[in-house]
Amino acid sequence: MEQLFKDFSPGLFVMQTLILLVLIFLMRKFAWKPILNSLESRETEIKDAIASAKEAKEELAKLTSEKDEMLKEARVEKDTILKEAKATSDKMIEEAKETAKAEGAKMIENAKAVIEGEKKAAIAEMQNNSAKLALEIAEKVIRKELADKKAQEELLSSYLQEA
Q: Strand ranges (DSSP E) for the chain?
């Protein structure tokens, strides 16, 4: 420190003080305001960026909420469509079963009618054949029995008595 006091020069001190004051004045006049303005504008930009980020975050939350709501609605709609499709499918299957049953019953009735008709035709044919056979047998028996004149008179008289 002593060395410092020995080398001290008042002219140099005044000159350096004057230069420092001029430098502070010039800095204040020309550089301080632009630096402060740039700092203030930077601060404003940062505040705006923060506000924009908050708005974007809120918008993202809102969109996420809307997306979730739309997904829920889509799931509900999907479930509804699937239920309707299942109900329609079940209904179509039931209608097909009903139609098949009705057609089966109709076919059975038609088959029964055909069988009944064929049965009646067979019975009628059998009756006709039986009647023809009976007539042929009766004719042969009667010819044999009536071949003789005395037997014919006896048969005729028995019929007359019955009548």
A: none
Residues 76-125 have pLDDT tens digits of 999 999 999 999 999 999 999 999 999 999 999 999 999 999 999 999 88
Q: Report CA Rg, the chain.
A: 65
Supply 72's token pair: 């829920």
List, for residues 30-74, the tens digit of each pLDDT value: 888 888 889 999 999 999 999 999 999 999 999 999 999 999 999
Give one DSSP letter per residue of 76-108, joined into a string.
HHHHHHHHHHHHHHHHHHHHHHHHHHHHHHHHH
- Would you say 146 and 155 are in contact if contact means Cβ atoms under 8 Å apart? yes
16 to each of 30, 69, 84, how far by Cα in Å? 21, 74, 95
On whether the CB atoms of residues 146 and 152 are closer than 8 A, the answer is yes
Four-residue CA torsion sign, 46, 51, 57, 60 = negative
pTM for this predicted structure: 0.41
Sorted by where each begins, the domain ranges of the chain are 14-162
